[in-house]
Records
---
Amino acid sequence: MANPLRLYLACIRNTLEAAMCLQNFPCQEVERHNKPEVELKTSPELLLNPVLICLNEAEKCLIETSINSLRISLKVKQADELENILTKKFLRFLSMRAEAFQVLRRKPVQGYDISFLITNYHCEEMQKQKLIDFIDIEKEITELKLSVNTRGRLVATEFLKQFIYVDRLHIQHFPHQELPAILLCMRMVDNGSC
Amino acid sequence: MLMAYLERSSPTLKETLLKIYRAEKPVEIDQHFYEFGSIQYHIKCSISDSHIVYVSTSTLLETQGIVTVKETSGHTYEMIKKIAVGVIDIVDPPKLGFQLTLKLYLGKIPRGKEAIKIITRISEIQALILSSQLKEMLKMLNFQDDDSQAMNNSIRPIRIVYHPSEPFYVFKQPEKITAVFPMNFKDNADVVIAVSFFQELVEVGSRKEMGKAPQCNWSPIPPFQLRGEPVQDLTTNSGFVSFDITSRHVEGKRLDKTVWNLLNFYAYVKYHIKCSRGYIQRRMRKRMDSLVKLLVNTSLEEEAAQKENERCKNVKKRMKVPTSQLMMKERCKEMTRRVKTSKFRIKINGCARFRFSQRWISLPRFSAKPSNKSYTKLD
């Protein structure tokens, strides 16, 4: 991992560790209601200053804290069109199934790709460290892009090979060390192990 | 690798012919079906004449902007007759609306595995017709002199349409023939996946070991040879893929392979995009399951740890003590029992004189009932 990225993730981790000090706080507006104050923003005294951590213009993290809840919004790097498409697909896929994750917000905050809402109840039920580890999504997008490109390369190789070899018998003329590797890679890519 | 190999034989035609061939009783069939949107088949078999099957086929062939149902050339007829000599006959004229009609004699098909081979070859009839047309074009362009082409500057690229909205162009260049495919996709995600595939195709084609394959290029703008062609063909969202076919690729057996690969390039790319999308979906689902497990485990870990501690205590109680410890325990128990039974009288050998029948210490008795002894209150 590059050094700036490592520092960026370390900064987010440390900030989250400090910010995840949440406690139960009933709603001041409505009796017997308990609402995440960071979403409503009705009482300024319950809100802390939001923290914006930027790696560059394309990657940033916004952490908004309140007394009983915490909202984390991430903007993921999208270097090219393929990463753009994969990021949108993956994050939309997760957001549509937000109920399975409990801490995920169905709709990201404007200007960001994905948002999490963590309340004091989540902190009671789950371990803080694991929640922080869960938030590292960029690695998944990078791996997905790599496997799509690998798959495309293998398919292109197979297509062009058809022009060279008329019969399957001639396939033995292909460099021996490369053919088994290609077939193995294709199988691994299809199985999703690479 | 299955996905690189698109079958020449029509699966529906093959299945229907096999069904008729294997049927114990004569069957009545009059069936129309389409494949890939532009290839049409008609199969007819009647009970009265159950040993003969009529197979008609046609494809939409559009060349140079003129929509025609082109007649099959003589060379193609010869190729078709060679598929199964004695088993099929070409019906002239073909059925109305069709390019070719074959008369199939079921009784003359040899038994066993040979029958399946012959039926498979008959099912490849459409691939044979399409390939032969493109083969003739490529041969014609290949053997054309460069000088004659230079003199005749009005030679335009040949526009070939085997499937609606999927035209491709073939034109002659010095020492090679170039086939250009304008690529269009409806979905934006398909466009991105296709473009990344084309870039990989160009990169793989430029490798040393692929030197014998046709050189492949991708460009977002059309090549200048296509100037003057219809605008709707030159407006694309995924660029233009071109293959440079040399004389090496059109000689002997390679011609058939080259032609088949060019004809199925669109289908190949679409199939790859479909498989890639399916793969992305599977991968996302798998990752989602792992993330959910990670979160569920964090909440269950603490509960599990508490339960584990309680369980350990219970288990420890029920656990068997090792034999040596067991013996020690039994000895201790025996000792305590003896001490108790001796009424707290500890017998020490040699100390008989000090043995008392009474207790050494008399403990006061405490009871819930108030003492009967009265007391005087101190002032």
---
Amino acid sequence: MAMLKKCENLEFGLVRSTSFGRKRVCLPNIEDLDFISTTPKKKICRQNSFSSFVKSPLEALPQDILIRIVCGVDHDDLKRLFHVSKPIREATLVAKRWHFEYSTPRKTVGFKNATDLENLSESTDAEVPNAPRQSRFPRSRLSRKKLAEISVALFTSDGEENWPQRELFMQMDTEI
Amino acid sequence: MSSTKLLTLKTSDGEEFKLDEAVAVKSQAIKNMVEDDCVSNAIPLPNVDSKTMTKVIEYWKKHSEEGVSKDQLNDFDKGFLEVHHSVLYDLLLAANYLNDKELVDVICQEVADRIKGKTPEEIRKEFDIKNDFTPEEEEKIRQENAWAFD
């Protein structure tokens, strides 16, 4: 009885109490379940609450357009865009995942002298940093030597000297 | 005699623009309406104002002209896009609403070109963006970037 009273004090209305061994648990009425299951919503505190309302026109654009814009910059600009602001950073992350991870960065060259500048324009896309080298014909990864080590001939060949076992067999024959 | 059907487009501020259907269908949204045969009256464009619509139509007309070389078009585009950011954003939103992929791509690239090569501070200054990172968050990003991009 005393326990019932205790449960009532918790403002659950009519409660049933059950005991699991030594522990006594107050169970609320079914009607009051809704009240209990809805926990108070967490208040999201923002440090700079005012700045979040004032968005620049660029950030106010729909995110898919912002992502398209970011897809148009160079790889190197991505690093810098990360530091600009939170909405820009989010768009940059998405653009990086969708677009930049499937494209090769352009080569940036340090100019040695003026003549290099002229040659650069002709060969901007010729070499690309860290791009995997591709040979015209696929190189076989197995050399002949390796092949010999790992392969086993299953059928007889002309050269009988390659078959020490056969020799042994023949020797045994002669002995008998 | 060629039948050039004229379409009427009505902007958010009540102005009406008459345009050849062949030009107007650069907008996928308008093209869909033409195909669905619901263009008997003026086509309402509540998300586009007359100032922006004038510019969009100027672009469409130039890119529909016959006998214009690629270089001439490039020169036109350059001049067309040499406007303030706010005009570009309005154009971009209008092109997006009208679903003109070519125009959206062209404007996005122009904005991207304005971002290229700039430091974060320069980008913020150019586009009037406020830095909403705390010093701790900035440091965290710098550390994350170290392995992400090298």
---
Amino acid sequence: MNKSPINTNIQSGSGTTTTTTTITTAPTATPKKSTSSLSFSSTSVNNTAQQQQQPIYPPTSNITQFAPFDQYLLALTSQDHRTRVEAILYLQSYHLPLNNQENGFDLVYTVKKQLSSEQDKNIRVQLVGLLKSLALDPFVESTSIIHYLLSTVIKNVHTSKKVICASLIAIRSVVQSKNLKLSLLISSSIQPLLNHPNPLIRKECILIFGHLVKTSEELDEIQMILVNFLRDPDFRVREASLRSLSLLFYRCHNLSINKIYQQATLLLVDSFEQVRLECIKLLWIFSNVFPNHILGTINDRKKSDKIRLVDDVFKKICNAVNDPSVVVRNCACKLLGCIYDVSLHYLIQTLSKEILFDHDNKGRKKFQIGHSRYSNAGKNQKQQQQQVLSPLQQQLQQQQHQQQQQQQYTTIQVPEGDIDFMASTDSSLSLVDAGATGAFIQGLEDEFYEVRSSAIDSMCELSLRNNEFAQKNIDFLVDIFTDEIESVRINSINSLRKIGKTITIKEDQLHIILASLDNSSQAERQAIHRLLTTIHLTNFSCLHATVQALLVNLQKYPRDMYSIFECLYKVATKNQFTEFIAEDLLRIDSKFASVEPNMDDIFYVAIMIVILNSAKNNNTILSLLPPYWVQHHLYFKDKYPAYFQQNIITTDTNNNVNNYSLNSTYEMKLKSQEDLTLFLKNTLSMLYGSNNGNDDSLYSLLKVGKFDQLSILMEEIQRNLLRISNINRILKPTSDFYLMFIKVLKIIIHIKKELFSSSNSQQHIIAEKLIKTSFKMQGLFIGLDNKIQSILYEIRLYGTIVLTISKMLNLNDPSPFASPPYPSNIFTNLQSSINIYKTFFKDNLMTIPEKNQEIMDTIGNYIIEQQQSNINQRPFKMQRTGINTRQLLLDKLIIFLKEYQLPQLMIQNQIKKKVVNTLMPPFEKPIESFDNLPIKLVINANIENISNVEYLYLQVNYLGKSQLYTIGSQYFVPIKPLSYSICLPIYVSLPKSQKQNKEMVQLTVNIIEIVPIDPYSTKILSFEHINEHFKLVNLRGNRISFNIIN
Amino acid sequence: MGIKVVPLGAGQDVGRSCVIVSIGNKNIMFDCGMHMGYHDERRFPDFSFISKTKQFTKTLDCIIITHFHLDHCGALPYFTEMCGYDGPIYMTLPTKAIVPILLEDYRKISVDRKGETNFFTPQMIKDCMKKVIPIALHQTIKVDDELSIKAYYAGHVLGAAMFYAKVGEESVVYTGDYNMTPDRHLGSAWIDQVRPNLLITETTYATTIRDSKRGRERDFLKRVHECVEKGGKVLIPVFALGRVQELCILIDSYWEQMNLNVPIYFSEGLAEKANFYYKLFITWTNQKIKQTFVKRNMFDFKHIKPFDRHLADAPGPMVLFATPGMLHAGASLEVFKKWAPNELNMTIIPGYCVVGTVGNKLLSNAGGPQMVEIDKKTTLEVKCKIHNLSFSAHADAKGIMQLIKMSQPKNVLLVHGEKEKMRYLSDKISKDFGVPCYFPANGVTVNIESSKLIPIDISSKLLKRQILEYSQANSKQFEDQQQQQQTHQQQQKQDNSDENINNLDPDEQPFKKIRSPITQLPIQGILVAKDYQNLKLLDPSEASSELSINNINLNYILNYKIQTNNKSTTTSAMDGLEILQDRITELLPHDQINRINQSQLVIKNQVVIQFDKVQQQFTIRWSNHHEQLFSDIYKLLEKQFGEQL
């Protein structure tokens, strides 16, 4: 009514809203400026001026890395930009998780306060992030933080997108990990954000929903929202909805398949690969949750069709194998392997390009779009038939042929093996939606090896569950043996091995496998060796081919020796055809007398492994062998105990060959494991005495002090143990351990008997030997229990005492009265040894035997006394008393040694010995080293039963010097649990020889493990400390020796 | 506008690929090849179709060559140098490098051996190559203001590319030759989901479905190995570049693996040159070769040696790769003549042979012994085994379908194949994808109607603002409804009767609708048409600057007097402004409302309300930008104070 234009004003600008105050120095922007000014320093007059105006870095922020907590709180509200940021960062990384509730309260309060006043949105994001970490802290009440985020941060219209996003992420991570009862509140306050223009915010909302659902009503509602948002214009939101749906499944909610499935399948053709990827993952979940749900589909002929859900999903994922994106293809190939319970019909389809379709009502008509594997067989037959035809008929056929050609108008020939489907039918088969057809063929032909590898994995997985599928698989897995990428080849070899037990491999397939033995990659060859052990060889020609191929391999790559032996050993024990090829292998001709082969010839060894190991099942083989085999066997079983049976002789022939048996007192037939165990037990009873009070045992003799009778008994025990070690692989470590123990016993007896009667220098050596042996026992075996370890510590203590005494006597000797008191360092060893001993017992809650405790107390007291007297510095008095106490101590110690009873050491569990097998360098000619240049030596070894490889080193010995080399972790290739093979080069530089002439230097390499003397000390390894705190234990492999001309 | 396509070659045929496409007012020539089967003028496309007066440069906007095979580039020097085309030519870098070698080779055979005249000279090839502009993979080149082209990887041979050409809203994809299955040295073709109006695809193997690749390779190796073991000679006719590199890698590594020492030869010096280029353009090869070339370049063959002519008569087994691949001339034919009569020998033709070549004749009756006419004078009795193994790097039917699925075209046109097979495939395509499919013969024009879309550019400022407003409105609406529903539910609880269930449903319907994503959005703006540019939808403020029209700002002032009759309702004069403020805050809860002083109120920094308590009068100032806001306030005023009127 009164509305009238009074003033018209013409403005030229647009005149919109004023922006918020911009911050002049954003911390992120400053470094850029600095670099630019640096790079253009020549024209930097203006720039330097700028620099003065805006300091590039604040000189130092007044906050340091390890400031007290309160200071950070202060810094959070500081005026300076950088200080605030740093405070947040430091708080997040150094002060979380919090250590008390009060701090948490303070911090949350401060952060909230700062958030309300903070202008910089980047810092606000940081602050929200800090709140998030706080909310996850056990000392902080997270409900209030979520309330705060929901009510003040998100509701506020002026909050920037980034801050909202950060808050949503914060809420999500809290909801994810803490069980809160806020889901209704959260969902109602978040839902308005679902229509936010920023897709990232929508995405975060959707993701929260996935974590939110608790009850079934909520589920219905949220499920609908998620399904609706599958249609979001932004792909990130679509992806998030799919992920949330999957998450709901993972959280055991039961989604309605009818509502979701159709919607989800639409996303299979989404333009974004991430969406497609999530989509097939979701479908995969469906297939595993509701495999037998029946879907109604409409096929090409407008007929309704029914299909099980799992089959439908399988088909869809198979289609995804054709996806343009590698990521999706790879994932699809992986998922195919873990869909369970797919109909066999579809599984088989994946392996052939044949298509099945419904032709008419009568039933299925098979239409083959061929794979040559199946069609070739038919073709060959036809060709054979043709050959049978008479020449006349052939001519006729040719004429027909030519006529046909004249009629044929086509110019592009269909290549052999391929199929022209035009001629076959005018059917309505679809080429695009071929479903499962040929999916694996496609996967195996993929351009990217990741995809191929996944396809192989899946095929292997499916094969394990389905025999028929497995059988059809072999061809394809064998085909992959020629793949370009090594890892793919190895994968297929290993896959074949895994399914090897369920399938039979045809002869031609075997030949392809054997051909791969020529491969230059060691890993691949070894994989094939392992594969060969699982394959069932169907006839003797297969066996022959296998053995020959392995021999060729051995010739070409001698360093495969152990792997090949192992393979031959297993192959031989499994099959029955050896008798047919034995003669051929040994090149025996009945007409001529055979030459006795060289026993060190590894080919001969390989052949004998095959023959003698199959003889276990088939005695007729032995009769075929030339007579010298018995001697050879004796040699082999000592040299290669792992690959030769100890006694292949059956009971009948036992007498003939029994002459090599060392022990005639025991007539036990040591064949079965039980026998051996009993034998071991008996031997041990000789050592310790049996339960029924047998007094003849070694220990009882020892107690009485009848040293003379001991030696015979001990010899016998030793012999028995040695025998067990030789015969049985399982008991070998145990008996080896006992053997070493006997050695210790011997030394101790020696000490008891002859100590202090002989010269001093020997005592020293003997003590050292005792300590060393105990270390060896500890270092070389794994699985020793506490009892045994305590005995080992005791032995070491004993040894140290002997050592100390010898030192004391040494000092004593020249003039017992004039000598100054013992230098304190005499006892350091002993003291540390006692400490270790004590801590071990304490840690393992064991009680120290009385006598040991006594002697340790005595020593301890003495040492303390001496220290005190040293402090008191009364030399004369002390000297006198010192001598007395000293003599007293010495006497006590000697008595202790003499009366010492070694506890009974019994191995209860099965222990394992650390074993190193090294391969000799192939060359026989000495290596020449030139002018001090390092020489490359390649070390090949297999190590077994090593739990911690980081303590392994290579010790190189030459000219009486030794040097340690580390072995990089990348050189350990695991073979079996706790077993590795090593193949590494080391570079040794020898000192320049003094002489003009070159001379031969013998250089040996050992693999050693470093065992800590004190397991409770810090395990920092550095070479200077090795002598002080660690002991080197040589893992008794064969020494690798090199001859070098220097 | 629409798209017009005329195949000058390769329409219902294989050879001399040449397709003219007119999009909008632009004419593009895809490929410019020659036909292997003819030796007369039919070997080149009929360029007179383009322009009777030879004004090619004027008519054509550019030539695009997909790869270096002669049936795709053989006529190029003829067209540029002898027919006088002088416009831009595009090809990928490897193609540019290799094309002149092949052209020179072709020239030599035609002129030096057959003694043809009126043929292009080496200088012409050089001049022609100078006009070529290289294009990188996935690079978009703007040929001119309207036409832009982009190259995609096609597999097939080194440097083969598919091209996407776009003019305005209309686009065409021309595939050239491509391969959807990767091989030993090249990857598989790949294209974005570009949704072109037209996809022109090759259909060499339109109705074939390939055997598995590995099986094929093994067959090949087994055959070669068997033949060589029996002492036979194996002839593999190949083209110097392309497939042969794959076969070389295959055989070389097989020889390595099986430790064979039967010699392998490669005829002509072309091989070294070719391998040089393969080494050079390693980025165009597949994953494996790219990854391992540091250790060992796969194209450094260990077992393959160059061939010398006298070796053809040497005794003993051997394997020979000889050019050309279709056995129509050159070394391969020469050697074939020598080796064919021996039944121990074998010839493996790894690819496709054009009609009229010896290779084609051999393959058409590969069954057994035969007489083959080499040329008009000589016939040859062929006793050796003939095999055709599908190493040809063309997509099979499934691959073609896959590419269609990948690019999602609106129309498909088939070239480079046989008529019958094309017909069959086109049926399939139109059935499976529901898009029209054509396969014109040479010289037949196909018109493709495109949907008449008018593109409108929208300013991002406007769009952002509109989306924001719309989404805010939406969420507000949603919140309101949520509240309503809550109250509704409370009522329900009070009522607790059955009939409410029926009431609930209509309520829930809009509720659900709101929680779905915003997929459509009404936009209000100013549509600007200027010069020949696209139409633009702009924000009013932008529109004025775009059209360089001054922005007029109208400021209004309204005096609104409160009638003081009814003092009982409005208690005091001071309250007038306070009441108004309360009301406005209710109405616009999220907006900024500032009380400047006792008598002044500013809303959103834009609408100023003053209250004169003596006169009991509101003075409201606003500008024409805030008409809506004012009218809201005015309504409030009326409601609050107007009843006294």
---
Amino acid sequence: MEEVPQGCPGTGSAQAGRGASCQGCPNQRLCASGAGAAPDPAIEEIKEKLKTVKHKILVLSGKGGVGKSTFSAHLAHGLAEDENTQVALLDIDICGPSIPKMMGLEGEQVHQSGSGWSPVFLEDNLGVMSVGFLLSSPDDAVIWRGPKKNGMIKQFLRDVDWGEVDYLIVDTPPGTSDEHLSAVQYLSAAHVDGAVIITTPQEVSLQDVRKEISFCHKVKLPIIGVVENMTVFVCPKCKKESQIFPPTTGGAEVLCQDLKIPLLGKVPLDPHIGKSCDKGQSFLIDAPDSPAALAYRGIIQSTCA
Amino acid sequence: MFACFPLESAGSQQRLGSSTTCGPRVSELTEAGNLAGVQHIILVLSGKGGVGKSTISTELALALRHAGKKVGILDVDLCGPSIPRMLRAQGRAVHQCDGGWVPVYVDQEQSICLMSVGFLLENPDEAVVWRGPKKNDTPPGTSDEHMATVDALRPYGPLGALVVTTPQAVSVGDVRRELTFCRKTGLRVLGVVENMSGFVCPHCAECTSVFSRGGGEELASHAGVPFLGSVPLDPELTKSLEEGRDFIREFPESPAFPALLSIAQKVLTEAPARVP
């Protein structure tokens, strides 16, 4: 993994290779020659590599903690229930990789072979890749600067030997950051089906969703739709509904109507979900008849229709 | 005076209305003399998004105010500065005077003031995506922003950091990494707060562990830091924050109320009387 000097002006900048901080950088000559301004060859390489991947879906959220990784994990589980569907789950949340824990794959290691990195296979038809697999301890803090994160995402997209895949699901960190820009940039030549945006009903969350939608428009990423999570809570004792996160401004329904974006579905808050994730299991299998599981299945269908 | 600084996690995004970085901006905001009147500085961290860091900061500020303290909140959450809304201060203009930026007082008695990056952003709905390095000196990267804030505050001897988590293992996983960050930067950890710790059904009073259970206490014990308490989920709290109301004043019967007061008390106990 290349290190960049502090004060690196960026390989695409006019100052590339010419700035004071460029002295001593191994790439200085390359940058000064203008090679940095050319499109990254990795983009074409990734387009070729991902030719064997039929559908690519990015899972985004504006705000953290709305259930994005939970959704990504269960979208993968749900699709992989059909043995004939090959599913790949890529976790590019480099600073907070939750996918290994949720999939019950904590502690797994990634192997390299002649054809690239092998994903960790949960099932024969479900492969997972995450920076979490590269950390030696769960206490390790990943405090990387932008260019290093960019490099990691490039490697994940270019060097992982996914094989023939029907669905590649990309779990992202919250908001709009280096990781999202990198992913969109490197996938620019490979056709991406679109993004699913996760939210909770409160205005605090919706505010960030609007920004997320604006980001998608800016980078020309199609939006498949919005999922509203933690909609209502059904008390396991008295079965009455409560709204833990009240939709003071109408929730995702009103937002989607206003912005003319499909609402893929709403998922109730079910304590089983958290428990299954903690155990690294599929909630769709642990509680298949629960309203939340049924909601998930409906959303999976709408997403992949 | 207490100053609460909720800090987005090291892995978070940046969204800016201009091309400046967080580091210099925080330095501007904490320039020599401006923090001279502040006796105690608390950083509120999480490591995981959506655990209620801004909520806890705001509620802690309100609780300290009720204990007779003057409180300032510095919201450097670039990704989604939610605190202005929580204190009904959205859209307020921020002025500069000779002494620096004038924070916004959110109440008549001027016992709580707020400075938020939210006041400095241009269009609230626009996604401003920034990636660099760009034309300025400090390379971007969330760790740099995080570190810049901690470094800018270091000369003022912060009391420490309050780390917020939810009970679930995935939150705890991220927060463990945040505790590592605190250790590496020499930032004292006042303790762990477990938020969204159970929901009491308003119909039948049954308490359910909506987001699993036990994570906060286990984390505190594993990391050798104090466990400051669990705050249960209360929709009234959520609604109150969305509408910018004073939850502490309006809902003393809420199950979250004793927990928040207890946490504020513990913070007060940690704060030795300082000679200004």
